[in-house]
Amino acid sequence: MSAVPDVKLDSYYSYDELTAYLEEAAKAAPELMQLRKLITTPEGRKLWLAEVTDASTGPAEEKPAYYVHGNMHAQELAGTTVALHLLRALLTEDDFEELRRKVVFYIVPRVNPDGAEYAISTGGPIRSRFDVIPKKNGLVPQDINGDGMVLQMRWEDPAGKYKEDDEDPRLMVRRRAGDNGPFYQVHHEGLIQDYDGGPITSGIRSHDFNRNWPMNWGPEHEQHGASDYPFAQPEMHAVGTFMLEHRNIFAGIDFHCGSNSILRPSDIPDDEMDQGDLGLILEIGNLASELTGFPLLAGRDYRETWRKAAERKGNSTTWAYQQLGISWYVIELGNSVNSAGVPTKEFLEADSETREREYKRKVLAFADEHPDMNPFLPWQEFDHPQVGRVEIGGVKEWEMFIPYVGDMKEIAPRTTEFIRRHAGRYPEVVVTEATAEAVADGVYRIRAAMANVGAFSTCVMRAGRDVPSTEPVRVRLSGLEDDAVLSRANLHELPALAGLGGRDQFEWFVKAPGGSTVTIEASNPRGGVARQELKLE
After folding, report:
1. Any domain includes 100
2. How far apart are CA 89 and CA 97, in angstroms?
3. Which of 237, 251, 398, 466 gives 231 a disulfide partner, CB atoms 3.0 to 4.6 angstroms apart?
4. pLDDT tens for residues 364-379?
5. CB 120 within 8 A of CB 76
6. 201 and 213 assigned to the same domain
7. Phi, psi of 324 (to 5 degrees)
8. Are 528 and 441 contained in the same domain?
9. Rounded distance, CA 152 to CA 400, Å?
10. Statement to judge: residues 219 and 262 lie in one domain
C-alpha cells in the first residue's frame, strides 16, 4: 500500500495538485478516508470533501463530527495548506488515534476552487467570484498583453491619483498634498466597456462567500459582496447544506488569511450572550491563542481600532454559533505584512497611509530576501486598444496579501494541534449501570443510566438548545416484541446531557421470555450512539 504523501509547505496548491493529493491520500488510507464530491463548480471543478474516521469502530453517521474548511476567499490559499496538514496528521499520527476511533472529521480544503485557480494563475483581483455588469466606462479585469497575468496598468496623467513611492518606486501610492509628479492613472489590467474617455469605474460585481451565509444576512446595499440571497453561490449552498444535513457536527474551524488572529463569536454583545457560552468560548479561544501564538479577538473587534465595531453580515461565525449552536472559530492565518514582521495589534492600529506605504515597503523588502516570493513584475509598455500607450505590471495581489508560504512550516502544525485539542472535547454518550432483575414470571425490571463523558454538552452551546439542528438524547430498548414494555413508553428523550458526567436514570418493566437479550441504546447526533446488551435471566 502506498504511503500518505507529505504536504508541500514551500508553495501553494493549484487545483490539479490539490486533487492529486486528495486522491493519493484516499488511495493510501482507504480504511480511514473517503473522498467525496459535493458539487461540480460553475467552471467544471470538483468541490472536494474528505471524510476521515476509523470505519472499524462504527459508521461515520453514528459519531460526533468535526468540520473544517478553508480558502472560500479566492486568494487565501494558505487555508488549503493547513487543512491538508490536518488531513495528513489524522491519517498518519498516533496522537490522533483515539479521535479517529471516536470522531469523524469532515474537511473541505478549498471551498472556492474556481476563485483560487483564478488567483494563483493570473495574480488578478478577486474576493471570491466576480460577475461582469454592463456599465459605461466600466473596466473588466483581464489579461490583455498575453502573458497570462492580470496585473495593473498605468499611464501618466497630471490629474492622476497615484505616483511612484519615493522610497520604493515599485509601489504605486496615492498622491499627497505637495507631492511632485509624475502622476499616473492606475487601474487593473483590462478592457473598458462602452469607453468614451470619461472617468473609469469598475465593471464587475464582487461576491464574498463569507457574506453569503443565511444567518444575519444583509442585501448588497447593506453588506458588500452578499450576493442576491443567502447561499446564492453554489459552493456556499453545497457546504451549508452539508452542515445542516450532518447534525453530528459539534465544532469546527473556518480558515482565512487576514492578519493572524483567532476570531470568536461576537455578533451578540458579550453582556447579552449566554454567560456560560461566553466563558467556554473564551476558554477554548485562549487555548487556541496559546497554541498558535495568534491573538484572540472578538469578531467585531477585528478592525482598525479607531473605527466603529465591525459588523459583517452573513459570516460563518454567526451561522455556526447562532444557527447551529456549535463551537466555532475563524482562524486568520496571517498576511504578508505579518510575515514581514508586523504583529496584528500594530497592523490593526495603523492608518491607511502606513499600510499603503510603510507596510508594503516591508513586504517588498521581505520578498527581496526570499526569492521564492515574486510579488512584483516590472512595468512593460503596451498599446491599449482604448486608452493608448500604457504600462502593464506591478504587484500580484495574492502574493502581496497572503502569508509567505514558508511560514506554513510553523503555522500548520500549531493549528493542527489546536484542532486536536478542540476536537478532543467531543460529546460522548454512554450507557452505564445497566441491570435486569426478574420481578415476576416473564417480567423484568431494567434499569440503566445514560451519561455524557465528553467535555462538551450534547447541545454544545447553550445558544443551540432550541435550534432545529440540535436534537435530544434518545434512549430506547430494542430486541423485544412491540408490546413488551409494560410500564411506560419505550422511547425517552432528554433535551441535553451536560458534559463531563451529566447523567440521567431510566427504568422499564418488560415482558419477555427468560433468556432473551435486550439492547439498551442511547443516541444523539453530536454525542454518538452507545449500545449495551442485557440477557434476561
Report:
1. yes
2. 10
3. 237
4. 999 999 999 989 999 9
5. no
6. no
7. -100, -25
8. yes
9. 13
10. yes
